[in-house]
Task: structure prediction
Amino acid sequence: HIQAGASDSATAAQRQPAKTLPLEGVRVLDLTMGWAGPLAARHFADLGADIVKVESCAHYDWWRGFDGIIDGDPPPYETRHAFLMVNRNKRGVTLDLKAESGKALVRRLAARADVMIENYAPGVLDRLGLGPKAMTSAVPSLIDISMGAFGASGPWSGFRAYGSTVEQASGLPFANGEPDGPPTMQHVAYGDPIGGIYGAIACLIALYGRKQGHAGAVIDLGQVECLFQLGADAIVAQSTQQELLARDGSRHPLSKLRLVGGETGIWWAVSAETDAQWNAIARIVGAATTLDQRAMEDAVRKWSVGKPRDVVVATFQAAGVASGPVYAAQDLLTDPQLAAAGFWRRAERRFIGNHVVPLSPYRLDGATPPLRASAPTLGEHNESVLGGDLGLTRDELDRLAAEGVIGTRAVAQ
Result:
């Protein structure tokens, strides 16, 4: 599937896949959708675990097509880059979880699994008889993690939420923004990737505990609580004063100068933490060291007019001042550091063709975990998982398909 990109300058050792991945032999039942849950499962997939992702053709992962477009050539739900990003290295099946035979197959998959990851809206799987208590009672060794926005207890536990809701509830926007502006979000779904990382960590800890003789576990992860760690400085600072924290844009109380400058699409950043760095900036831009912060910001911006970004950054760095380019998304493909690390690869996938993909952000003994397979098409592995792993016959598979239990929209053939 994989072809090295022309810009891939990783060393030979980095390009070679690891001989043995640390989670080989671990089985994960993936009942997730969107970003947070699929990302948690993808970390397991990247590290060698066997992931079976369950969707239904009537209600497939909404990141395949949250805008409601269904029909087209190629099918829109098979071309969403976001879905591809967090579902690589997985096998995919389609099952109707409202049908008793569909639920029975999920239970059989759970009986073979070490971990079950789900981020359904609170209470949905409980009503289907597939919630954490039911599944771990049936399979005592199973590690089950639910990833509700507010966790499984408390007055808000039943609320549905997305990454934007989670960020607002964490208090982060209140600490961000310009002094004369309202609270500002950092991302429309900032809570999702952070929750996904914490979800993977929690499951790995439970797996370690099981190797030490503990039984399976029910993990209740509240995504909003995961974001508190990123706002710890603001939370602590507010606890020391009565008046509300002042929002100050790019500035920071621990920095003498923290500035983003440049022109539209070509931005750079500079930060002075010490007197020596402040004085160095003053010398570079020809300003008095006695200027206040805002006056120094104006002096830096005036000095930078007409200068290429690389010149601005190199000048500050040469003087011992922290500075760097602020990349736009399209700049990342040619970033020399990412290219040298072998972060980008090219892959082939049905309906997409040849495309660029990011690999894992970690290397094991110098090797990046390999991209073994692109994200599954809808129902791609029905036969290999339900037939091969669970032992269903051809007649049983045909009957389930006719009943709509494994769907009619599968496009793997």
